[in-house]
Amino acid sequence: MVRLTSSLLLAGLAVSLRLGLRCAQVQCQPKVSRGMALLLRLAAPEPVCQSKSYKWDNLDNAILSTKYLGDASKDDWVYSGDIKLEDGNLLLTMPKNSGGTLVANNHYLWYGKITAKVKSSRGAGVVTGFILLGDTKDEIDYEFVGADLANVQTNYYFQGVLDYNNGANASVPGGDTFDEWHEYTIDWKPEAITWSVDGEVKRTLERSSTWNETGNRYMYPQTPMRMQLSLWPAGQASNAAGTVAWAGGQIDWNSQDIQEKGYYYATFGEISVECYDPPKSSYSLGSKSYIFVDEDGLESSVRVTDNSTVLASLGATGLDMNLGGSDSSGNSSSSSDNSTSNSIPQTHIGSGNAAGNSGSTGNSSSSGSSGSSGFSQGNSDSGSNDSNGASSPNERVLRGSFFAVLVAVVVLVAL
């Protein structure tokens, strides 16, 4: 996982919670440090789950991550990188020497079922992801390693804790995740998680099996998460050696797909979301958003409320959602948002099992529709050669304005 080495970087993360992909990009991690606890307090309310099926006739419901201010009623998806439409499907593309593509749903899920028709990418070092990921770093994954088209990897995390025993391979009928369509389902309930391929259950994780005596808690994903689709170059030479090995080796930027199409690609067909009721023990104070009332990052920490999820500007946070907006006279309340519209997401996509663990949105429905942003994938773990396998690259980092960084530094020092 990314290791934060300076309070300034941590502050930068704090003020970037809602620049596009919000806290899901910086991965608030409570109970790890006061800085990360601050991140959770800064997170804006999360839009509640919406049962819905998504088809890809156009990109009218997708917006660049650097333009999203939290209104999920207007935009279902945010994206970074290069996306295209082809034959009624969504293509996540990765041109030569680029950093990858991420598409995230703007509605959070607090237990429910997600299903997607997927054709993965292929090739050593290329990884496709279909995952759930939360602000507390709870996570449930399908990951497709391009060097192994016969299997898909399943995995889960509780508050981002890396445990190489959590991952497991699932065989795919026909043995080809690239050329053949398959339907992948994550069924997440308070008592169990089920991973299914083409309707066949491949793995079940019981909550009861995750009890941790030392921590006196279940290390089980239990807080709201959002769906993410991703394509990333895990096999970049600059990545950690363990990450490259897990991904099947270094990526070939002169592969067949690069030569024929100009990019690696993963294809997503229809996607469906079915929301389940909140846990019986939960408190509902409304129906619009999820919030955290403490820093434990547990199921008991979450409330359903009517709090607004919309920020006034890219520089605003959950502590001041009107920062950078205009007052009733039309005057700006702050100048701190003077440069964030040009922020570039630096994104780690996917999480990986241990090694050896068997511009603007398009408006047309034509196959030529596409969207692109200045996506750049960083790798803060590149200096770590973890021989056990991939580092957790799900640290979503967004650059905030320098002014906002200074404000966050002051807050951290005050702690």
TrEMBL record:
Top-rank EC class of the record's enzyme: hydrolase
Cellular component aspect of the GO annotation: fungal-type cell wall; plasma membrane; side of membrane
Catalytic reactions of this protein: Random endo-hydrolysis of N-acetyl-beta-D-glucosaminide (1->4)-beta-linkages in chitin and chitodextrins
EC assignment: 3.2.-.-
Family per similarity comment: Belongs to the glycosyl hydrolase 16 family. CRH1 subfamily.
Chain positions covered by the region annotation Disordered: 322-393
Domain GH16 residue range list: 54-262
Active site: E139, E143
Protein's UniProt name: Crh-like protein
Pfam annotation, one family: Glyco_hydro_16
BP GO annotations: carbohydrate metabolic process; fungal-type cell wall organization
Keyword tRNA-binding (UniProt): no
Signal sequence range: 1-28
CDD domains: GH16_fungal_CRH1_transglycosylase (cd02183)
